[in-house]
Each structure stands twice: as structure tokens, then as C-alpha cells.
Amino acid sequence: MSYIPHSQKDREEMLREIGISSGNMDELFKGIPEDLRARSFSIPSGRSEYEVMEHLKELADRNTTGLVNFVGGGFYDHYIPAAVDALVSRSEFYTAYTPYQPEASQGTLQAIYEYQSCICRLTGMDVSNASLYDGGTALYEAAMLAIRATGRNKIIMDGGVNPIYRKMMYSYTSNLNIEFVDIPVTRDRDYREKIYAHLDAETAAVILQNPNFFGTIDDHTDISEKCHEKGALVISSVYPISLGILKTPREMDVDITTGEGQSLGIPLSFGGPYLGFMAAKKELARKMPGRIVGATRDAEGRRGFVLTLQTREQHIRREKASSNICSNEALCALRALIYMSLIGKEGLKKVARLCLDKTEYARERISGIRDVEVKKEWPTFNEFVVKLPRNPNEVIGKLINKGIAAGFPLGRYYSSMEDYLLIAVTEKRTKRDIAIFSDALEAALWS
Questions:
Q1: pLDDT of 18-74, one tens digit each?
Q2: pTM value?
């Protein structure tokens, strides 16, 4: 914060400079009636910088940002290196304007190019666009891409896909001639047979999520094989941090990969702005929405960057436009690029491993609580489901008062899961945090 500690002598000199020879601050406001002046300008004497900072910290501690966070559901409390804020706050980057015109600067174009390269390396895919609004928007755009690429209009969507994304999908497509097939939520892998039962020559794509909304991880290679036999594409929504240790979408022969990039150096920030990423196989590049930055050489042989592909209707014939995306999330994409560059390949592996190991520790600790059922049928990444002996909303309310955000009540989206709680653990949660959470959960259930 800015702090200007003017002394009394400083103030008197400034007042004399503007013609108030008495050096009396009240003379500045003599045109204001006395009764109003007394009420408006009766302010306490100045405090030292230390006192001001301590007071602001005290006020900040009253906010819920001080909660120990075990809530996930697609948005996670990850550590963000201080250098991310320091670099992205430079004046060259920190602007409300999102560049999308051909005259965008070389620095901005290079940043987007490097972001695309990082997303491709992370997912194993061939090409990435310059980013989208968020994970749900990206998934919708992937579905539309599949429909354009195949000429079909049937979409099969697994029940483990984030319900927020599912709602967005139905909202965006409500007036379009698209046939959706919902595969019911299941705690077993028999959903494969249900997918295969609906897979036919009219299917444009099958939409999957890994890890799914309940934290379960899976290998979808066999589903990809079945889909490709029918000429359908496979779309996978992924959690980017998990790719530090999990099989990549490309290794599962997925055609289009999307996801929410919030975990890549972007704070939770009361719900946004966030980052949607999309990557695909090379043959789908010209049908991707948004824009793609490419590297080239100028007439003098110097390396440069250019908006290679722009599929917005203002750039190509209206009926050929693949999207009405007007801007990409350039500043959020820059944050993701800086985060991935700072943390590096080995750092990402370490973060992912910490998430996995701490989640396993939390599962074991919580499974020891009487009448709490921890779901362990399938491996999870950093999220898991527990069944509680009482209403999760009551438990969450009690733990909030103890400074703990306990998790996400699944009954909010699934009527058959009123007693279930989704708990997320990131690398930021310590053993002490988990122990305190476990003890508080037990006390809330049985006190």
C-alpha cells in the first residue's frame, strides 16, 4: 500500500504555498458549514505504517479467505508462486484490453504462442488455441467442433462430467438440433457398456472427464478405441495438475482435450476470471474455435509471431465461422504460462504427487471416524467422496465456524446423494490441517 507520512511542518509549508498563511488545515474547508464539517472531517490522528498494516490484517482476518479450504468441485486452492503476481503485474501485461486483432504486439503474440506450446506439452496434443473463457465454455466449444468435424449431431456425455459444465452445455445448445444422451452417474465402471450401447453412426462425440467430478481417475483408452471404430470423436475434460503424474489425453488417443486452467496459477478470486484451455489433434486445427498464434520468419529471416488462424466471423465468411468468440483470456493465459514455466516439469510432478499422497492420508484419517463411509472402490487424485451419518450441510455450517471449509455437498447437484460430501486436498494442506479437519468433522458429527 502507499503510505505518505507528512509531518506537521510539511503540511504547514504546503498550506502556505497555496495561500493559507495561518497553516491551519481547517481554513481549507471554511466554505463548508461548521456542523457538516465537524461530522465529515472528525477523523482520528494518523497512525504509523506498522499500525495501519496491523489494522488492515485484523480486518482481513474477519473474511472467509482465512478458511482452511477442503472445497473442490472443479476449482482448487493451489499454491501460487509470488513471481506469478510480480511478473503478470508489469505494465506491459496488466491491461483490461484483450488483444485479438492482427496488429497485436510481438510480445503479446509470443506470450500466447508459448502458452499454446505449454498446453500442448501438458496434454500431449498437437495444437492448442489461444484460450477460452473457462472450462465449461471450452467443453461446449469442443462439442461444437466435433459436430462440425463429423457432420453428426449426437453427443454422449458421461454422468461424471462436472454438473456445472453440463448445465452450461445445455444452456448454450438449447436452441440447436443436437441429440444429447446422458449416461447416469455410477460408482462403478459399467458406464462403459452404457456408452457403447448408445454409440452409433450418428454419434459425433463422447464426452468424458478425468479425474471425474467425484475425483475418480480412469484410463479411457478402451473407450477411445470403440468410439473411433464408429467414427466418433472423444472429448476429455481434464484437471491440468493431475497430468503431472497421470496418463495424458493423447496417450489415451483422445481427439479434443479441454479443461479449467484456474489451478495453473490463477487465484480462486470469488469465481473468476478463469481460463478455459483447448487442445486437439492436428487434423482438427482448422476447425478449432478462437485463434491460434504461430511462429514464422519475416523477409529478413527474423523470427516473428503472427495470428495464424482466426475463425471469428469478422475474419472469414459468416457461414464458415467456427465460433463467435470475441476475445481470449490473454491475461489469465499469461498467468498460466508463467506458473508452468516457473514450476517446470519436475515441479508439476511434485505438486501432483503431493496432492495424491495427502489425499490418501486424508482418506485414511477420515475413514477412522465412526459411521463415516469413505468411498474407495476406485483410485482418486485429490478429491474423494464420503457418506456422512447426518446432513452434510449441517456439518459444513459447524465447521465454517471453526475456520474450515469442509467440502462440497453433493446433494446440491445429485438428488440421490443427499448424505454425500466431496472433499478436496491440495498440496497446500498440511498433515496438521488434515488432522484438525478430521477431529473437527468427528466432533461436528457426534457432539
A1: 888 776 777 777 788 877 766 555 556 777 778 878 888 887 777 655 689 999 999
A2: 0.83
Tell me the chain's radius of gyration from C-alpha atoms. 27
For residues 153 and 236, state if they share a domain.
yes
> For residue 366, how many other CB atoms are within 10 A of its CB?
20
| Residue 173, Ramachandran bin (φ over 0: left; ψ between -120 and 50: alpha; else beta) | alpha
Given a cut of 60, is residue 330 above it in pLDDT? yes
Question: Grid coordinates in use for 257?
Answer: 482435450
Distance CA 426, CA 271 (A): 18
238-241 long-range contacts, Cβ below 8 Å, gap at least 24?
A: 238/123, 238/209, 238/210, 239/210, 239/211, 239/263, 239/381, 240/122, 240/264, 240/277, 241/76, 241/78, 241/348, 241/351, 241/352, 241/355, 241/382
Domain identity same for 100 and 241: yes
Helix (H) or strand (E) holding 86: helix 82-88
Q: What share of the chain is helix, strand, coil (3-state, %, to 5)?
A: 45, 15, 40
* Residue 30 counted as domain residue: no
Pair 291, 412 in one domain: no
Task: Tell which residue, 339, 397, 385, 340, has the closest CA to residue 359.
Answer: 385
130, 115 contact by CB (below 8 A): yes
Cell of 212: 471425474
